[in-house]
Design a protein that fits this description.
Order of helices and strands: HEEEHHEEEHHHHHEEEEHHHHH
Radius of gyration: 21 Å
Distance between the termini: 46 Å
Organism: Psylliodes chrysocephalus
Domain CHK kinase-like: 123-320
Helix content: 40-55%
Number of strands: 10
Structural class: alpha+beta
Largest sheet: 5 strands, antiparallel
Strand order of the largest sheet: 1-2-3-5-4
Pfam family, one: EcKL
Shape: globular
Protein name: CHK kinase-like domain-containing protein
InterPro entries: CHK_kinase-like, EcKL, Kinase-like_dom_sf
Oligomer: single chain
Length: 338
Amino acid sequence: MSVQLNEVQKGLIDKIAKENGFNDYELTTNKGTEKGDNFLGILTTVTIKNGKDKLELILKSAHQNEVFRKAAALRAAYLREIYLYENILTEFKKYQEIHNVVDVFDNYAKIYGSSTVEESECLIMENLKTQGYQLWNKQQPMNSEHISAVLKGYAKFHGTCMAMKHKNPELYVKITKDISSSIWENEEFVTNKDLFEPFFRGVMDSGYKSIKDDPDLTEFLKTIEPKILDMFSNGLKDPEYKISLIHGDSWCNNLLFKYEGSDNNIPSDIKFIDWQISHVNSPAYDYCYFFLAHSPKEILDDYKTYLKLYYDTFSNQLRSFNCDPEEIFPYSRLESFT
């Protein structure tokens, strides 16, 4: 089913088309996501075609419902993600090239354009699914190969960031100073009941719904609910955690995997998507969020193996920049966070 675009989106797509050599072209748009796949955005597939030549894109646009926009800090989320793609990730790419890093962190989509117009916030990126990338089945825990691939990707990301922080602190501060805090780490959002309470209640209601048939887990969630609230309002501000830029949203729908051949047990590549709540925090945030949310029991029981895998990859990335990992972020400190 074709999707209608607004004038801002049409203009942006036309600009991208011309920049990529499509002066006369056929434009096709379709719904790009299933219900529940993307919380903060509307995904639309965009195909620009002229004869045999075509450009496959994905348009990620913000919801326009005023109540939802306020409750989810939606404008801030889109401005954050646009900044990540157009500034942070671009600087990381340059920094790795300068230092001749071999095993580069490039596990993200290419961005073609964006809009910061109020109520028309959007990003247009390469369509990774047309290149063979797939989502993981969110109803299943991941196997060792997928867990390892994600942890290695995060390790390269954190390592690149912390190398820049150590060797070029002026550049690091310049590019991270405006995104050092979470989009939800502000007094207006946390203290404004009209903004925060609908968001927090929605999160908790989803949790209770998922465990409604387990009275023990339901009782446990009731016990820790005040602690979760305190974490949102106070825990994010602790300077002890302000170590590195993090992805911040590590559930499986923000991870795309590619495979060689028909074997979907071993990914050949991974891409991290949805950078809307990225901010400065502890690398352990990404590690723990992902590892605890997606690992089966046998992998959770063997957590030290995977912690070491992450740290070994992280250390190798730092050494690519001639940095000492034990000086910058020792293994013992990582362990203390996990």
